[in-house]
């Protein structure tokens, strides 16, 4: 009986050894696969290491971030400059006198982003023409405006009707 027990133990140990050997072979296969992948990534296409490739990529990302920061600063300068350039225009043609046709007189308003600018008007007559300029500060004239100049200012400001501008106090006397 003791001998048969030893035989069963020997068979069990042998079976366990075979299972462990198979398990070791499977693990060795997986290690070899991972080693091949590791060598591929560390070796690269031209022999450079993955570490060098990552260092180059990080440097390129930092350079791109610096370039973007420069672009943002340049964009802010452009916005600041643009805010002080003429960007709103109002233009009205009209007849200054009843006996002259073809709308040869005009009122032109040029405003910047702060609604500061100038209103230029030209009054055409048969014997003479006159040109006037009036300053506009914060969307309001510092001097009296003619009806046509007021229409031109309202057009530049985007007002819908002359009455709206008169009610809002566009003309400052």
UniProtKB/TrEMBL annotation:
<dbReference type="InterPro" id="IPR027981">
    <property type="entry name" value="DUF4446"/>
</dbReference>
<dbReference type="Pfam" id="PF14584">
    <property type="entry name" value="DUF4446"/>
</dbReference>
<protein>
    <submittedName>
        <fullName>DUF4446 family protein</fullName>
    </submittedName>
</protein>
<feature type="transmembrane region" description="Helical">
    <location>
        <begin position="6"/>
        <end position="27"/>
    </location>
</feature>
<keyword id="KW-0472">Membrane</keyword>
<keyword id="KW-0812">Transmembrane</keyword>
<keyword id="KW-1133">Transmembrane helix</keyword>
